[in-house]
Amino acid sequence: MRIFTIILSFIAIGLIILNATKIDLSHPFEGESIIALITIVASLCAISLMAILRISKRIEQKTKEKN
């Protein structure tokens, strides 16, 4: 599970970098720039969800070790 979350996080980072190059800074809310911004926000959400999943798995392991 850990490798899966790391791979998905790297894919999301790659999407952020790719879409950051597609943003037209003079018109950021028009055409393909808005699609790139939406994809960047979605990738950031995916990264935060993977971080939450990793933290919850750590908490689960620690509670199992105590019992």
Walk me through this protein's architecture.
Keywords: Membrane, Transmembrane, Transmembrane helix. This protein is an all-alpha fold and about 70 residues long. The protein is built from 2 helices and no strands. It has one domain. It is about 80% helix and about 0% strand. α1 packs antiparallel against α2. It starts with a helix and ends with a helix.
What is the element layout, followed by pairings?
Layout: H1 2-20, H2 32-66
Keywords: Membrane, Transmembrane, Transmembrane helix
Transmembrane segments: 35-56
Provide keyphrases for this structure.
67 residues, elongated, 2 helices, mainly alpha, 81% helix
Number of helices: 2
Which class do the helix and strand fractions yield? mainly alpha
> What string gives the helices and strands in order?
HH
Distance between the first and last residues' Cα: 22 Å
| Sheet of most strands | none
Number of domains: 1
Regarding quaternary structure, what we see is: single chain
Mean pLDDT: 94
E-strand count? 0
- What fraction strand? under 5%
Keywords: Membrane, Transmembrane, Transmembrane helix
